[in-house]
Amino acid sequence: MTVSVPPPDLQDRRTWMGLLARARPERLAELVPDEPDPGPVILRQPEIGTVMVQGRIGAAGSPFNLGEMTVTRCSLRLESGAVGHAHVQGRSKDHARRAALVDALMQTGRAAQLRRDVLEPLLRDEAGRRLARAGKAAATKVEFFTLVRGEDR
Amino acid sequence: MYVAVKGGERAIENAHALLAEDRRGDTGVPELSVVQIREQLRLAVNRVMAEGSLFDPDLAALAIKQARGDLIEAVFLIRAYRTTLPRFGSSRPVDTGAMACSRRISATFKDAPGGQVLGPTFDYTHRLLDFRLAAEGQGLPKPATADPVAGPVPHITSFLNREGLIETDRPGDDLPPDLTREPMELPAARALRLQAITRGDEGFILSLAYSTQRGYGRTHAFVGELRIGTVAVEMDIPELGFAVEIGEVELTECETVNQFTGSKTEPPQFTRGYGLVFGQTERKAIAMSLVDRALRWKELGEDDTGAPAQDEEFVLMHADNVQATGFLEHIKLPHYVDFQAETELVRKLRAEGAARRQEAAE
Protein backbone atom coordinates (compact mmCIF):
# COMPACT_ATOMS: atom_id res chain seq x y z
CA MET A 1 0.00 0.00 0.00
CA THR A 2 1.35 3.42 -0.91
CA VAL A 3 0.65 5.83 1.90
CA SER A 4 1.99 9.32 1.43
CA VAL A 5 3.18 10.28 4.89
CA PRO A 6 2.68 14.00 5.40
CA PRO A 7 5.31 16.13 7.17
CA PRO A 8 5.11 16.15 11.00
CA ASP A 9 2.80 19.16 11.36
CA LEU A 10 0.42 17.58 8.86
CA GLN A 11 0.64 14.31 10.76
CA ASP A 12 -0.45 16.22 13.83
CA ARG A 13 -3.33 17.74 11.90
CA ARG A 14 -4.31 14.33 10.54
CA THR A 15 -4.46 13.02 14.07
CA TRP A 16 -6.74 15.73 15.41
CA MET A 17 -8.98 15.68 12.34
CA GLY A 18 -9.44 11.93 12.81
CA LEU A 19 -10.15 12.36 16.49
CA LEU A 20 -12.74 15.07 15.78
CA ALA A 21 -14.38 12.91 13.09
CA ARG A 22 -14.68 9.92 15.43
CA ALA A 23 -15.97 11.99 18.36
CA ARG A 24 -19.57 11.59 19.52
CA PRO A 25 -21.43 14.69 18.26
CA GLU A 26 -23.02 15.33 21.68
CA ARG A 27 -19.67 15.17 23.43
CA LEU A 28 -18.08 17.56 20.94
CA ALA A 29 -21.01 19.97 21.48
CA GLU A 30 -20.33 19.90 25.23
CA LEU A 31 -16.65 20.64 24.75
CA VAL A 32 -17.00 23.24 21.99
CA PRO A 33 -19.63 25.87 22.80
CA ASP A 34 -21.10 27.82 19.90
CA GLU A 35 -18.57 30.12 18.31
CA PRO A 36 -18.42 33.77 19.43
CA ASP A 37 -19.39 36.71 17.22
CA PRO A 38 -18.20 37.42 14.66
CA GLY A 39 -18.47 33.80 13.62
CA PRO A 40 -16.22 32.26 11.00
CA VAL A 41 -17.01 32.65 7.32
CA ILE A 42 -18.56 29.42 6.09
CA LEU A 43 -16.78 28.42 2.88
CA ARG A 44 -18.82 25.27 2.41
CA GLN A 45 -22.10 24.84 4.24
CA PRO A 46 -22.35 21.56 6.13
CA GLU A 47 -23.41 19.02 3.50
CA ILE A 48 -24.52 15.41 3.94
CA GLY A 49 -23.26 12.83 1.46
CA THR A 50 -21.67 9.42 1.25
CA VAL A 51 -18.24 7.90 0.87
CA MET A 52 -17.77 4.51 -0.77
CA VAL A 53 -15.88 2.28 1.64
CA GLN A 54 -13.40 -0.09 0.02
CA GLY A 55 -12.13 -3.42 1.27
CA ARG A 56 -9.39 -5.64 -0.12
CA ILE A 57 -9.92 -9.08 -1.64
CA GLY A 58 -8.60 -11.60 0.86
CA ALA A 59 -7.71 -8.68 3.19
CA ALA A 60 -4.49 -7.96 1.24
CA GLY A 61 -5.37 -8.08 -2.47
CA SER A 62 -6.98 -5.66 -4.89
CA PRO A 63 -9.65 -3.25 -3.63
CA PHE A 64 -13.39 -3.83 -3.99
CA ASN A 65 -16.39 -1.70 -3.10
CA LEU A 66 -17.91 -2.78 0.19
CA GLY A 67 -20.70 -0.20 0.50
CA GLU A 68 -21.17 3.44 1.37
CA MET A 69 -21.25 5.30 4.68
CA THR A 70 -22.88 8.63 5.45
CA VAL A 71 -20.49 11.54 5.87
CA THR A 72 -21.02 15.26 6.51
CA ARG A 73 -18.46 17.83 5.40
CA CYS A 74 -17.92 21.49 6.11
CA SER A 75 -15.26 24.15 5.48
CA LEU A 76 -14.89 27.55 7.12
CA ARG A 77 -12.44 30.43 7.51
CA LEU A 78 -11.64 32.39 10.66
CA GLU A 79 -11.05 36.12 10.68
CA SER A 80 -7.36 35.36 11.07
CA GLY A 81 -7.46 33.56 7.73
CA ALA A 82 -7.06 30.02 9.11
CA VAL A 83 -9.17 27.55 7.13
CA GLY A 84 -10.72 24.54 8.79
CA HIS A 85 -12.05 21.43 7.06
CA ALA A 86 -14.07 18.51 8.33
CA HIS A 87 -15.33 15.22 6.91
CA VAL A 88 -17.14 13.41 9.71
CA GLN A 89 -19.07 10.16 9.78
CA GLY A 90 -22.85 10.42 10.08
CA ARG A 91 -25.37 13.12 9.32
CA SER A 92 -24.78 15.70 12.05
CA LYS A 93 -24.22 19.12 10.50
CA ASP A 94 -23.31 20.56 13.92
CA HIS A 95 -20.67 17.89 14.30
CA ALA A 96 -19.11 18.80 10.94
CA ARG A 97 -19.24 22.55 11.67
CA ARG A 98 -17.66 22.16 15.11
CA ALA A 99 -14.98 19.81 13.79
CA ALA A 100 -14.09 22.32 11.06
CA LEU A 101 -14.02 25.13 13.64
CA VAL A 102 -11.64 23.24 15.92
CA ASP A 103 -9.49 22.32 12.91
CA ALA A 104 -9.19 26.04 12.06
CA LEU A 105 -8.59 27.15 15.67
CA MET A 106 -5.87 24.53 16.07
CA GLN A 107 -3.91 26.51 13.47
CA THR A 108 -4.05 29.65 15.62
CA GLY A 109 -2.65 30.80 18.96
CA ARG A 110 -5.47 28.97 20.73
CA ALA A 111 -4.08 25.56 19.80
CA ALA A 112 -2.65 24.74 23.23
CA GLN A 113 -5.90 25.63 25.00
CA LEU A 114 -7.99 23.59 22.57
CA ARG A 115 -5.64 20.66 22.84
CA ARG A 116 -6.18 20.69 26.60
CA ASP A 117 -9.91 21.44 26.64
CA VAL A 118 -11.15 19.54 23.58
CA LEU A 119 -8.68 17.10 22.04
CA GLU A 120 -7.37 15.56 25.23
CA PRO A 121 -10.83 14.90 26.71
CA LEU A 122 -11.92 13.37 23.39
CA LEU A 123 -8.83 11.19 23.33
CA ARG A 124 -9.47 10.06 26.90
CA ASP A 125 -13.12 9.23 26.11
CA GLU A 126 -12.13 7.24 23.06
CA ALA A 127 -9.30 5.40 24.79
CA GLY A 128 -11.67 4.54 27.65
CA ARG A 129 -14.35 3.22 25.27
CA ARG A 130 -11.84 1.14 23.36
CA LEU A 131 -10.17 -0.26 26.43
CA ALA A 132 -13.51 -1.22 27.99
CA ARG A 133 -14.60 -3.03 24.82
CA ALA A 134 -11.24 -4.75 24.35
CA GLY A 135 -11.18 -5.79 28.01
CA LYS A 136 -14.62 -7.41 27.78
CA ALA A 137 -13.64 -9.21 24.57
CA ALA A 138 -10.39 -10.41 26.16
CA ALA A 139 -12.38 -12.02 28.98
CA THR A 140 -14.03 -14.26 26.35
CA LYS A 141 -10.68 -15.62 25.18
CA VAL A 142 -10.56 -19.40 25.35
CA GLU A 143 -7.94 -20.94 27.63
CA PHE A 144 -7.40 -24.48 26.35
CA PHE A 145 -6.21 -27.22 28.65
CA THR A 146 -5.25 -30.73 27.62
CA LEU A 147 -7.11 -33.65 29.15
CA VAL A 148 -5.16 -36.75 30.17
CA ARG A 149 -4.44 -38.53 26.93
CA GLY A 150 -5.06 -42.25 26.47
CA GLU A 151 -1.40 -43.10 25.88
CA ASP A 152 -0.35 -41.27 29.10
CA ARG A 153 -2.07 -43.77 31.38
CA MET B 1 -63.16 -3.33 -24.79
CA TYR B 2 -60.92 -1.84 -22.12
CA VAL B 3 -61.62 1.75 -21.14
CA ALA B 4 -58.90 3.74 -19.36
CA VAL B 5 -59.94 4.65 -15.85
CA LYS B 6 -58.58 6.79 -13.10
CA GLY B 7 -59.22 6.53 -9.42
CA GLY B 8 -58.10 5.12 -6.17
CA GLU B 9 -56.63 8.31 -4.72
CA ARG B 10 -58.89 8.23 -1.69
CA ALA B 11 -58.44 4.48 -1.26
CA ILE B 12 -54.65 4.92 -1.35
CA GLU B 13 -54.75 7.77 1.13
CA ASN B 14 -56.91 5.76 3.50
CA ALA B 15 -54.70 2.69 3.06
CA HIS B 16 -51.66 4.77 4.10
CA ALA B 17 -53.48 6.00 7.20
CA LEU B 18 -54.45 2.44 8.08
CA LEU B 19 -50.85 1.34 7.54
CA ALA B 20 -49.65 4.07 9.93
CA GLU B 21 -52.17 2.99 12.55
CA ASP B 22 -51.24 -0.67 12.22
CA ARG B 23 -47.56 0.24 12.38
CA ARG B 24 -48.18 1.84 15.74
CA GLY B 25 -50.17 -1.14 17.02
CA ASP B 26 -51.91 -0.98 20.40
CA THR B 27 -51.51 2.59 21.64
CA GLY B 28 -51.74 1.24 25.19
CA VAL B 29 -48.25 -0.14 24.62
CA PRO B 30 -45.40 2.41 24.68
CA GLU B 31 -44.06 3.42 21.27
CA LEU B 32 -40.76 1.93 20.14
CA SER B 33 -38.07 4.57 19.60
CA VAL B 34 -35.51 4.53 16.80
CA VAL B 35 -32.74 4.58 19.39
CA GLN B 36 -34.21 1.48 21.06
CA ILE B 37 -34.18 -0.33 17.71
CA ARG B 38 -30.61 0.81 17.06
CA GLU B 39 -29.40 -0.41 20.44
CA GLN B 40 -31.54 -3.49 21.08
CA LEU B 41 -32.19 -4.92 17.59
CA ARG B 42 -28.65 -4.34 16.47
CA LEU B 43 -28.33 -7.45 14.32
CA ALA B 44 -31.43 -6.43 12.33
CA VAL B 45 -29.87 -2.97 11.96
CA ASN B 46 -26.64 -4.58 10.74
CA ARG B 47 -28.46 -6.63 8.15
CA VAL B 48 -30.27 -3.58 6.79
CA MET B 49 -26.97 -1.67 6.59
CA ALA B 50 -25.23 -4.55 4.80
CA GLU B 51 -27.97 -5.18 2.25
CA GLY B 52 -28.92 -1.50 2.00
CA SER B 53 -25.21 -0.95 1.31
CA LEU B 54 -25.09 2.12 3.54
CA PHE B 55 -23.39 2.21 6.94
CA ASP B 56 -25.57 4.41 9.17
CA PRO B 57 -27.14 2.65 12.19
CA ASP B 58 -29.62 5.46 12.92
CA LEU B 59 -31.00 5.45 9.39
CA ALA B 60 -31.21 1.65 9.33
CA ALA B 61 -33.11 1.70 12.66
CA LEU B 62 -35.52 4.32 11.31
CA ALA B 63 -36.07 2.21 8.18
CA ILE B 64 -36.85 -0.85 10.32
CA LYS B 65 -39.40 1.13 12.32
CA GLN B 66 -41.03 2.55 9.20
CA ALA B 67 -41.08 -0.89 7.54
CA ARG B 68 -42.72 -2.47 10.61
CA GLY B 69 -39.80 -4.86 10.91
CA ASP B 70 -39.95 -6.02 7.27
CA LEU B 71 -36.20 -6.02 6.67
CA ILE B 72 -36.34 -6.21 2.88
CA GLU B 73 -38.70 -3.22 2.86
CA ALA B 74 -36.23 -1.45 5.20
CA VAL B 75 -33.35 -2.24 2.80
CA PHE B 76 -35.46 -0.76 0.00
CA LEU B 77 -35.97 2.47 2.00
CA ILE B 78 -32.22 2.75 2.65
CA ARG B 79 -31.36 2.19 -1.00
CA ALA B 80 -33.90 4.84 -2.04
CA TYR B 81 -32.53 7.34 0.50
CA ARG B 82 -28.96 6.71 -0.62
CA THR B 83 -29.75 7.78 -4.16
CA THR B 84 -30.62 11.27 -2.86
CA LEU B 85 -27.12 11.85 -1.46
CA PRO B 86 -24.06 13.12 -3.33
CA ARG B 87 -21.00 10.88 -3.15
CA PHE B 88 -17.91 12.71 -1.90
CA GLY B 89 -15.49 10.01 -2.99
CA SER B 90 -14.04 6.64 -2.09
CA SER B 91 -12.17 5.64 1.02
CA ARG B 92 -8.79 4.00 1.03
CA PRO B 93 -9.19 0.22 1.34
CA VAL B 94 -9.80 -0.53 5.02
CA ASP B 95 -7.06 -2.41 6.87
CA THR B 96 -8.78 -5.37 8.54
CA GLY B 97 -5.40 -6.47 9.96
CA ALA B 98 -5.63 -3.43 12.24
CA MET B 99 -9.20 -4.24 13.31
CA ALA B 100 -10.10 -3.71 16.98
CA CYS B 101 -11.60 -7.20 17.33
CA SER B 102 -14.47 -7.99 19.66
CA ARG B 103 -14.56 -11.54 18.29
CA ARG B 104 -11.94 -13.57 16.50
CA ILE B 105 -11.97 -17.32 16.06
CA SER B 106 -10.32 -19.92 13.87
CA ALA B 107 -11.58 -23.41 13.13
CA THR B 108 -8.17 -24.43 11.78
CA PHE B 109 -5.59 -23.19 14.30
CA LYS B 110 -6.26 -23.73 17.97
CA ASP B 111 -3.21 -21.84 19.18
CA ALA B 112 -3.30 -18.88 16.82
CA PRO B 113 -1.40 -15.87 18.18
CA GLY B 114 -3.94 -13.53 19.72
CA GLY B 115 -6.04 -16.50 20.76
CA GLN B 116 -9.61 -17.56 20.20
CA VAL B 117 -11.80 -14.69 21.37
CA LEU B 118 -15.48 -15.64 21.43
CA GLY B 119 -16.99 -12.17 21.85
CA PRO B 120 -20.77 -11.60 21.97
CA THR B 121 -21.83 -14.85 20.26
CA PHE B 122 -24.93 -17.05 20.18
CA ASP B 123 -22.59 -20.05 19.80
CA TYR B 124 -22.65 -22.32 22.85
CA THR B 125 -26.00 -20.94 24.00
CA HIS B 126 -28.60 -23.68 24.42
CA ARG B 127 -31.24 -22.08 22.21
CA LEU B 128 -33.77 -22.35 25.01
CA LEU B 129 -36.21 -19.46 25.22
CA ASP B 130 -35.16 -17.21 28.09
CA PHE B 131 -38.38 -16.11 29.78
CA ARG B 132 -36.48 -13.72 32.01
CA LEU B 133 -36.27 -11.43 28.96
CA ALA B 134 -40.09 -11.31 28.89
CA ALA B 135 -40.08 -9.84 32.39
CA GLU B 136 -38.85 -6.27 32.16
CA GLY B 137 -36.42 -4.67 34.54
CA GLN B 138 -34.34 -7.77 35.16
CA GLY B 139 -30.76 -7.09 36.17
CA LEU B 140 -28.00 -7.62 33.65
CA PRO B 141 -25.11 -9.99 34.20
CA LYS B 142 -21.92 -7.98 34.41
CA PRO B 143 -19.44 -9.06 31.73
CA ALA B 144 -15.99 -9.92 33.05
CA THR B 145 -12.97 -8.01 31.89
CA ALA B 146 -9.40 -9.07 31.30
CA ASP B 147 -6.23 -7.43 30.05
CA PRO B 148 -6.68 -6.80 26.35
CA VAL B 149 -4.27 -8.21 23.80
CA ALA B 150 -1.86 -5.43 22.92
CA GLY B 151 -1.38 -4.39 19.32
CA PRO B 152 -3.02 -5.58 16.13
CA VAL B 153 -3.97 -9.24 15.81
CA PRO B 154 -2.38 -10.86 12.72
CA HIS B 155 -4.51 -12.67 10.16
CA ILE B 156 -4.35 -16.39 10.77
CA THR B 157 -3.96 -17.36 7.12
CA SER B 158 -0.67 -15.43 7.08
CA PHE B 159 0.86 -18.35 9.01
CA LEU B 160 0.03 -20.73 6.16
CA ASN B 161 1.43 -18.16 3.75
CA ARG B 162 4.88 -18.49 5.30
CA GLU B 163 5.05 -22.11 4.20
CA GLY B 164 3.58 -21.33 0.80
CA LEU B 165 0.76 -23.76 1.55
CA ILE B 166 -1.91 -21.25 0.63
CA GLU B 167 -2.36 -18.98 -2.34
CA THR B 168 -1.49 -15.34 -1.83
CA ASP B 169 -3.54 -12.43 -3.06
CA ARG B 170 -1.64 -10.01 -5.24
CA PRO B 171 -1.98 -6.57 -3.75
CA GLY B 172 -3.10 -3.91 -6.17
CA ASP B 173 -4.54 -0.46 -6.21
CA ASP B 174 -6.73 -0.59 -9.29
CA LEU B 175 -9.96 1.35 -9.12
CA PRO B 176 -12.56 -1.34 -8.44
CA PRO B 177 -15.67 -1.65 -10.61
CA ASP B 178 -18.83 -0.27 -8.99
CA LEU B 179 -22.19 -1.86 -9.75
CA THR B 180 -24.02 1.15 -8.32
CA ARG B 181 -22.53 3.32 -11.07
CA GLU B 182 -22.12 1.00 -14.07
CA PRO B 183 -24.54 -1.77 -15.07
CA MET B 184 -23.13 -5.16 -14.12
CA GLU B 185 -21.30 -6.83 -16.99
CA LEU B 186 -20.53 -10.53 -17.16
CA PRO B 187 -18.12 -12.18 -16.81
CA ALA B 188 -17.52 -10.12 -13.68
CA ALA B 189 -14.17 -9.47 -12.01
CA ARG B 190 -13.83 -10.91 -8.50
CA ALA B 191 -14.04 -7.38 -7.06
CA LEU B 192 -17.43 -6.86 -8.69
CA ARG B 193 -18.67 -10.27 -7.52
CA LEU B 194 -17.70 -9.45 -3.94
CA GLN B 195 -19.56 -6.14 -4.09
CA ALA B 196 -22.68 -7.89 -5.38
CA ILE B 197 -22.48 -10.64 -2.75
CA THR B 198 -21.79 -8.40 0.25
CA ARG B 199 -24.99 -6.41 -0.51
CA GLY B 200 -26.91 -9.51 -1.62
CA ASP B 201 -29.77 -11.10 0.27
CA GLU B 202 -28.55 -13.03 3.30
CA GLY B 203 -31.06 -15.85 2.77
CA PHE B 204 -30.08 -16.31 -0.86
CA ILE B 205 -26.33 -16.24 -0.19
CA LEU B 206 -26.79 -18.61 2.78
CA SER B 207 -28.73 -21.13 0.69
CA LEU B 208 -26.18 -21.04 -2.13
CA ALA B 209 -23.34 -21.52 0.35
CA TYR B 210 -25.21 -24.42 1.93
CA SER B 211 -25.72 -25.98 -1.49
CA THR B 212 -21.93 -26.03 -2.01
CA GLN B 213 -21.51 -27.84 1.30
CA ARG B 214 -24.07 -30.43 0.25
CA GLY B 215 -22.20 -31.19 -2.96
CA TYR B 216 -23.42 -28.70 -5.58
CA GLY B 217 -20.03 -27.18 -6.37
CA ARG B 218 -18.15 -28.66 -3.45
CA THR B 219 -15.23 -26.56 -2.16
CA HIS B 220 -14.33 -28.21 1.20
CA ALA B 221 -14.26 -25.03 3.24
CA PHE B 222 -12.86 -24.53 6.72
CA VAL B 223 -13.22 -21.22 8.50
CA GLY B 224 -9.57 -20.18 8.66
CA GLU B 225 -10.58 -17.09 10.52
CA LEU B 226 -13.65 -15.13 11.45
CA ARG B 227 -13.23 -11.70 13.00
CA ILE B 228 -15.65 -8.98 14.02
CA GLY B 229 -14.66 -5.51 15.11
CA THR B 230 -14.17 -1.92 14.10
CA VAL B 231 -11.79 -0.50 11.52
CA ALA B 232 -10.89 3.09 10.74
CA VAL B 233 -12.03 4.55 7.42
CA GLU B 234 -9.55 6.90 5.76
CA MET B 235 -10.17 9.13 2.79
CA ASP B 236 -7.96 11.41 0.70
CA ILE B 237 -9.25 14.95 1.06
CA PRO B 238 -8.51 16.88 -2.15
CA GLU B 239 -8.47 20.29 -0.41
CA LEU B 240 -5.82 19.06 2.00
CA GLY B 241 -3.75 16.81 -0.23
CA PHE B 242 -3.55 14.07 2.37
CA ALA B 243 -5.73 11.34 3.88
CA VAL B 244 -7.61 11.68 7.16
CA GLU B 245 -9.76 9.33 9.17
CA ILE B 246 -13.40 10.18 8.65
CA GLY B 247 -14.84 7.59 11.02
CA GLU B 248 -14.94 3.92 11.84
CA VAL B 249 -17.18 1.04 10.82
CA GLU B 250 -17.93 -2.34 12.34
CA LEU B 251 -17.20 -5.22 9.96
CA THR B 252 -17.31 -9.00 9.92
CA GLU B 253 -14.58 -10.71 7.95
CA CYS B 254 -14.37 -14.40 7.09
CA GLU B 255 -11.49 -16.15 5.38
CA THR B 256 -12.03 -19.75 4.39
CA VAL B 257 -9.29 -22.23 3.69
CA ASN B 258 -10.23 -24.65 0.92
CA GLN B 259 -8.71 -27.83 -0.43
CA PHE B 260 -7.22 -27.52 -3.87
CA THR B 261 -5.47 -30.40 -5.58
CA GLY B 262 -3.51 -28.15 -7.91
CA SER B 263 -3.71 -27.47 -11.63
CA LYS B 264 -1.32 -27.33 -14.61
CA THR B 265 0.15 -24.09 -13.35
CA GLU B 266 -0.40 -24.25 -9.58
CA PRO B 267 0.99 -26.78 -7.06
CA PRO B 268 -1.40 -28.50 -4.64
CA GLN B 269 -2.18 -25.91 -1.97
CA PHE B 270 -4.98 -24.37 -0.02
CA THR B 271 -7.07 -21.72 -1.71
CA ARG B 272 -9.20 -19.03 -0.16
CA GLY B 273 -12.68 -17.65 -0.14
CA TYR B 274 -13.33 -14.19 1.25
CA GLY B 275 -16.25 -12.53 2.98
CA LEU B 276 -16.45 -8.97 4.30
CA VAL B 277 -19.75 -7.48 5.42
CA PHE B 278 -20.91 -4.36 7.31
CA GLY B 279 -21.75 -4.91 10.98
CA GLN B 280 -21.78 -8.04 13.10
CA THR B 281 -23.14 -10.31 10.37
CA GLU B 282 -21.26 -13.55 10.67
CA ARG B 283 -23.67 -15.93 8.94
CA LYS B 284 -23.56 -13.68 5.90
CA ALA B 285 -19.77 -13.30 5.96
CA ILE B 286 -19.21 -17.08 6.14
CA ALA B 287 -21.75 -17.69 3.38
CA MET B 288 -20.14 -14.96 1.27
CA SER B 289 -16.72 -16.57 1.50
CA LEU B 290 -18.11 -19.96 0.42
CA VAL B 291 -19.94 -18.49 -2.57
CA ASP B 292 -16.88 -16.38 -3.49
CA ARG B 293 -14.76 -19.53 -3.52
CA ALA B 294 -17.29 -21.53 -5.56
CA LEU B 295 -17.39 -18.78 -8.19
CA ARG B 296 -13.60 -18.94 -8.63
CA TRP B 297 -13.69 -22.35 -10.37
CA LYS B 298 -12.67 -20.99 -13.78
CA GLU B 299 -9.70 -19.00 -12.47
CA LEU B 300 -8.46 -22.07 -10.56
CA GLY B 301 -8.97 -24.47 -13.46
CA GLU B 302 -11.61 -26.54 -11.69
CA ASP B 303 -14.48 -28.41 -13.36
CA ASP B 304 -17.80 -26.75 -13.99
CA THR B 305 -20.18 -29.22 -12.39
CA GLY B 306 -23.20 -27.16 -13.42
CA ALA B 307 -23.87 -26.26 -9.79
CA PRO B 308 -25.93 -23.09 -9.22
CA ALA B 309 -23.21 -21.60 -6.96
CA GLN B 310 -20.69 -21.90 -9.83
CA ASP B 311 -22.97 -20.05 -12.23
CA GLU B 312 -21.93 -16.42 -12.02
CA GLU B 313 -24.94 -15.11 -13.91
CA PHE B 314 -27.35 -17.09 -11.75
CA VAL B 315 -25.71 -15.91 -8.52
CA LEU B 316 -25.10 -12.25 -9.33
CA MET B 317 -28.36 -11.59 -11.16
CA HIS B 318 -30.52 -13.02 -8.38
CA ALA B 319 -28.70 -11.95 -5.21
CA ASP B 320 -30.20 -8.48 -4.85
CA ASN B 321 -33.39 -8.59 -2.80
CA VAL B 322 -34.54 -5.10 -3.81
CA GLN B 323 -34.39 -6.01 -7.49
CA ALA B 324 -35.98 -9.37 -6.79
CA THR B 325 -38.79 -8.05 -4.67
CA GLY B 326 -39.47 -5.21 -7.10
CA PHE B 327 -39.94 -7.57 -9.99
CA LEU B 328 -41.76 -10.18 -7.97
CA GLU B 329 -44.18 -7.81 -6.31
CA HIS B 330 -44.96 -5.72 -9.38
CA ILE B 331 -47.17 -8.53 -10.67
CA LYS B 332 -49.73 -7.70 -7.98
CA LEU B 333 -50.14 -4.16 -9.32
CA PRO B 334 -52.81 -3.43 -11.95
CA HIS B 335 -52.17 -5.40 -15.14
CA TYR B 336 -55.71 -4.93 -16.40
CA VAL B 337 -54.68 -4.18 -19.99
CA ASP B 338 -52.21 -7.08 -20.21
CA PHE B 339 -54.76 -9.42 -18.74
CA GLN B 340 -57.48 -8.15 -21.06
CA ALA B 341 -55.22 -8.95 -24.02
CA GLU B 342 -54.51 -12.44 -22.64
CA THR B 343 -58.23 -13.03 -22.15
CA GLU B 344 -58.98 -11.97 -25.72
CA LEU B 345 -56.27 -14.33 -26.95
CA VAL B 346 -57.60 -17.30 -25.00
CA ARG B 347 -61.15 -16.60 -26.23
CA LYS B 348 -59.93 -16.39 -29.84
CA LEU B 349 -57.96 -19.65 -29.56
CA ARG B 350 -60.96 -21.39 -28.07
CA ALA B 351 -63.23 -20.09 -30.82
CA GLU B 352 -60.78 -21.24 -33.50
CA GLY B 353 -60.46 -24.65 -31.89
CA ALA B 354 -64.24 -24.99 -31.69
CA ALA B 355 -64.56 -23.99 -35.35
CA ARG B 356 -61.94 -26.56 -36.38
CA ARG B 357 -63.67 -29.30 -34.44
CA GLN B 358 -66.99 -28.40 -36.04
CA GLU B 359 -65.44 -28.48 -39.52
CA ALA B 360 -63.91 -31.89 -38.82
CA ALA B 361 -67.24 -33.20 -37.56
CA GLU B 362 -69.11 -32.03 -40.67
Can you give me a brief rundown of this structure?
With 153 residues, chain A is an alpha+beta fold. Chain A has helices at residues 8-22, 25-31, 93-105, 111-138, and strands at 41-56, 63-77, 83-89. Chain A has one domain (8-128).
Tags for this model:
heterodimer; A: 153 residues; alpha+beta; 3-stranded antiparallel sheet; 4 helices; 3 strands; B: 362 residues; 2 domains; 4-stranded antiparallel sheet; 12 helices; 38% helix; globular
Please write out the topology.
The complex is a heterodimer of chains A (153) and B (362).
Chain A: H1 8-22, H2 25-31, E1 41-56, E2 63-77, E3 83-89, H3 93-105, H4 111-138
Antiparallel strand pairs in A: 1-2, 2-3
Chain B: H1 9-24, H2 34-40, H3 42-52, E1 54-55, H4 57-66, H5 71-82, E2 87-93, E3 100-105, H6 157-163, H7 190-198, H8 202-213, E4 221-237, E5 242-258, E6 271-278, H9 282-294, H10 312-318, H11 321-329, H12 336-361
Antiparallel strand pairs in B: 3-4, 4-5, 5-6
Strand content of chain B: 15-25%
Tell me the domain tally of chain B: 2
- The shape of chain A is elongated
Structural class of chain A: alpha+beta
Report Rg of chain A: 21 Å
Number of strands of chain A: 3
Order of strands, widest sheet of chain B: 3-4-5-6
Described by its quaternary structure, the protein is: heterodimer
Percent in helix of chain A:
40-55%
Mean of the pLDDT scores of chain B?
92
What is the end-to-end distance of chain B? 33 Å
Low-confidence stretches of chain B are: none
Domain unit count of chain A: 1
Strand order of the largest sheet of chain A: 1-2-3
Q: Could you tell me the mean pLDDT of chain A?
A: 90
Largest interface: A-B, 58 and 82 residues
- Biggest sheet of chain B, in brief? 4 strands, antiparallel
| Alpha plus pi helix count of chain A | 4
How far apart are the first and last residues' alpha carbons of chain A, in Å?
54 Å
How many E strands of chain B?
Answer: 6
